[in-house]
Design brief:
Layout: H1 12-25, H2 29-35, H3 43-54
Helix pairs in contact: 1-2
């Protein structure tokens, strides 16, 4: 997994919290985005940044 502080996130605190929730609560990306009320138009950008943490 990448170091989240190296990602130029839309909101790095939200990205870190989403990743933490995914691990702690066993949520999918979609469930985490729902829980954090990420607007539909921003979801593709958040999904791409989260994907960077898991894909080398």
């Amino acid at each position: 997994m990448c170091n989240v502080t190296n990602i130029k996130a839309l909101d790095s605190k939200v990205i870190r919290n989403i990743l933490r929730s995914m691990a702690n609560e066993h949520w999918s990306v979609a469930e985490a985005l729902d829980e954090y009320d990420i607007p539909e138009d921003l979801r593709p950008q958040y999904e791409a940044q989260i994907e960077e943490c898991f894909v080398n």
